[in-house]
């Protein structure tokens, strides 16, 4: 049995390599490609949320006819982002429920996961439209629950980032690639540390204009301490993981710190350019969407 299953797995891999991406998308034959399509759909949802929030008042005047929008007031701005986010959540949660417990690649539910894209795109569009007809009270309730979901999302994202960085570091330090990747590791790690230091210094300049901004000073300084701590642990003789892992992980925590501090409400004394802090961009949309 093990031999036959191994043979079918190898045969499937050969099919995935021979088929083009277009045919794999049409036939739903590549489960590994599904993650990229789902990521693309998530990106489109974020761009839609950005458009609804910043440009919806001029382009989406037809929303005034929807009962749940109350003259488009509750379907644009921050609540518009929540409506797009709710549709995205319903779609992915439906996919989760319909594929949970799948253990074999050739199961029917696995085929549903990696195929049927035409049906799933129609389903995704429908789930995106439905929240725009819901009353504002439901959307605000979802917004309260989404705060908890955002924390879970960040935790899963953290685990995924750590797993990817660990896998990349192990590949670069393997016996086969150690000599070939040594220069690349040094360049990538050096660039990561330089970006981290530049980011931390920039945050001190932009978000600590006064010594009284103690909360910003704490978070920025703690980020610097974490970067130093990760480097020390990684270079410890008992760990000996090199400088690539803490460098890349440092990029992530600097980015998270920057996104957290810049979300401070506009008009505060701890933002050097407070008048521009009220303007939204794609990073704000992504974090509010997730």
UniProtKB/TrEMBL annotation:
Annotated family: Belongs to the TDE1 family.
Keyword Membrane: yes
Species for this entry: Cucurbita moschata
Subcellular location field: Membrane
InterPro entries: TDE1/TMS
UniProt keyword list: Membrane, Transmembrane, Transmembrane helix
Organism superkingdom: Eukaryota
Protein known as: Serine incorporator 3-like isoform X3
GO cellular component: a single term: membrane
Parts of the chain that traverse the membrane: 36-55, 76-97, 117-138, 145-165, 185-207, 214-235, 241-261
Keyword Ribonucleoprotein set for record: no
Entry membrane topology: Multi-pass membrane protein
């Amino acid at each position: 049995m093990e031999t036959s299953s191994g043979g079918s797995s190898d045969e499937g891999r050969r099919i995935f390599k021979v088929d083009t991406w277009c045919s794999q998308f049409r036939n739903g034959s590549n489960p590994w490609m599904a993650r990229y399509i789902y990521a693309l759909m998530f990106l489109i949802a974020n761009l839609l949320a950005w458009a609804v929030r910043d440009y919806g008042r001029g382009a989406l005047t037809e929303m005034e006819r929807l009962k749940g929008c109350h003259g488009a007031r509750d379907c644009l701005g921050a609540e518009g982002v929540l409506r797009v986010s709710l549709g995205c959540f319903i779609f992915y949660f439906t996919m989760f429920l319909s594929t949970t417990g799948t253990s074999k690649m050739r199961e029917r539910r696995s085929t549903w996961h990696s195929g049927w894209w035409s049906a799933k795109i129609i389903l995704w569009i429908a789930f995106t439209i439905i929240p725009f007809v819901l009353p504002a009270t439901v959307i605000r309730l979802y917004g309260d629950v989404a705060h908890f979901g955002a924390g879970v999302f960040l935790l899963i994202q953290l685990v995924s980032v750590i797993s990817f960085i660990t896998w990349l570091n192990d590949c670069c330090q393997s016996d086969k690639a150690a000599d070939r990747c040594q220069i690349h590791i040094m360049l990538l790690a050096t660039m990561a540390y330089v970006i981290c230091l530049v980011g931390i210094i920039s945050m001190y300049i932009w978000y600590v204009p006064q010594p009284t901004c103690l909360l910003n000073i704490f978070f920025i300084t703690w980020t610097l301490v974490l970067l130093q701590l990760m480097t020390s642990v990684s270079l410890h003789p008992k760990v000996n993981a090199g400088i690539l892992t803490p460098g890349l992980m440092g990029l992530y925590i600097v980015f998270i710190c920057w996104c957290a501090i810049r979300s401070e409400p506009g008009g505060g004394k701890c933002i050097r350019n407070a008048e521009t802090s009220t303007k939204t961009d794609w990073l704000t949309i992504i974090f509010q969407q997730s």
